[in-house]
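Predicting holo structure, pyridoxine-5'-phosphate bound.
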Amino acid sequence: MLLGVNIDHVATLRNARGGAEPDVLLAARICEENGATSITTHLREDRRHIKDQDVENISKEIKTNLNLEMAVTEEMGKIALKILPHSVCLVPEKRQEVTTEGGLDVACQLEKITAFVKPLKNAGIIVSLFIDPSEEQVKASAKTGAQFIEMHTGAYSNAFGTPDEEKEFLNLKNATKLAQNLGLKVNAGHGLNYENVHRMHEIEGLYELNIGHSIISKAVFVGLDKAVKEMKDLIE
Ligand code: PXP
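Done. Tokens:
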């Protein structure tokens, strides 16, 4: 399994004082030097953490792959076609949410998302859809032309260590298998941490995990290099 590190919260910290520190590009470099195979950033509509200039800088300067998370909006489509990241991950976005709360409802927006995916793919960008692990969403995703889905692991992460863990884990496992049978590659992420990530090994063929908050939180105490390395060791 590969490791994508989401560095949005380095930008959150920087923006708290409005200056240049901590340097988001330096964070991206440290992540890749310590085992990240992609750098994930979510350019939100309200630009609350990552800014347009960050995305441009990271896109130009990193050696690994930029995975740009974004909402399905005309503005974001234009930005992706200008920046040409290695991949985009389409996510739902609500202004007031603290983080991405649920998966994209592909089933209800099949036409809109299919039309959105096409020009991105034509430009050579790999397209992933961030969805909840449900049969309905997986089947709809397979019809859009997207090559990847990213399975929302939030429900599993929240249930970890509780009686609901097994049920949520099985949802992930079954949805992954269905997606793979339908020709999709599968990533996973959201809420994964140093305690709960090990069960991702039980899901055959997962391609990449995208992890942010737990790595940046650990980095406060041990440094970003060690935090990334430790996660990389756990998922390899
Ligand atoms: N994947 C997606 C699509 C996300 O929106 C996020 C959160 O920004 C993550 C992964 C990473 O989640 P976390 O910060 O909880 O590790």
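The two ends are 6 Å apart (CA to CA).
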